[in-house]
């Protein structure tokens, strides 16, 4: 059974529980020939004005940068044995302003949601490290599936809203 919920808050507790427990997400981008490419990463998430907003601390690899320059739409998939899962469709934009990097560093440090994240100091020296890049992830669709009975709940954002990232 699938239910479309009007507010992200209607599925946020389950979203936070699954993302926090699973931690690792498969990120999908597409190349110039529309072929998918996946990689396993750990984004962090927060609620901003009642809507989900994600952040990904990452290296700006040539492949990832080229894919997102051509098509900023991406998908993140979380899955665990037992079939609890979360699927997030989002627009990804680079945001390397120092205040953003400091905010994201803190989200990873405290783990957001609880259980997700890690110490970014394992890969970068500080938020000002030029090798640290941040992707702002603005979801337009989030689906949470409970494995026990395959109950599915979907939140959709406003498809016409500006992600605020230019």
Concise account of the structure shown:
This protein is α+β, with helices and mostly antiparallel strands and about 170 residues long. It has helices at about 10-20, 60-70, 100-110, and strands at about 1-5, 25-30, 35-40, 45-50, 50-60, 75-80, 85-95, 135-145, 150-155.
Describe the structure.
- With 166 residues, this protein is of the alpha+beta class.
- It is 22% helix and 40% strand.
- Strands 1, 2, 3, 4, 5, 6, 7, 8 and 9 form a nine-stranded mixed β-sheet that branches.
- 27% of the residues are buried.
> Could you give the order of the helices and strands?
EHEEEEHEEHEE
The low-confidence parts are: 162-166
Radius of gyration: 15 Å
Beta-strand residue fraction:
35-45%
Dominant shape = globular
User: Number of DSSP helices?
Assistant: 3
Mean pLDDT: 94
Helix content: 10-25%
Structural class call reads alpha+beta
Largest sheet: 9 strands, mixed
End-to-end CA span: 37 Å
Count of extended strands: 9
